[in-house]
Amino acid sequence: MVLDTTDVMLFVLALARTSAWVAASPLFSTAGLAGVGRLAFAIALALFAVPVSMHAPPPPPGLFDFILVAVGQVALGLLLGWVTGLALAIFQSAGAVIDLTSGFSVSAILDPATGAQAAVMARVFGLAFTALFFATGAHLMVVGGFVRSFRAVPVTTLPLFGTESVAMAATAMADLLLAALEIAAPTLGALLLAEVALAFAARFAPQANIFMIGLPLKLGIALVVGGASLVFLPTYAANVVDRIVDLGQVPL
Q: What pLDDT score does 249 carry?
């Protein structure tokens, strides 16, 4: 079997996009997955993407133009990977807000999965979403949306990042903040009521050490209400994944 030069060039350009996407998405580039596994996943995606790219314009003949298009594919892969990683960042941010308001943030330790400092609720929400992401098959939806990007933006063309890209990034950041607050809202509401109750207690019983009483109280409320809110996590996860897939299909 003789390999066509065009097929090889399509594979290299597709690999540039898939490898950048895998490297930029924390859902697929976690430290628990070996580098060989991430590379194999990127190569497998590129092999599936080549048939999708068969109807694309021919690859650029010149070496400089080919390298320029490959760099554009890497940039596009990094952008799509960043959008995909927002799904995990939303739940980690919700947990981080709870940690900050309840006092868990003082016990932040290194999270081996992400390599960043994370406290209790941020890790719980992040791990719970990751488990749901792969257990419910949502990763197949995300990968399918990424493969469809090869039809929207062919690998043989240089992606042009226009105003739509800037609007997509701004919308994604706004959705990140809003979704994180929505997920953390029940726990934040309970903690706010606890703060009000402690303020009244400090007013009417100034001799009591409210700080020593309030810290374990807020920790207990965060554990109880935050744990109970995990029941609604599948609904939030489904909405977030749908939104991420829609964002990844915005034309550049």
A: 55
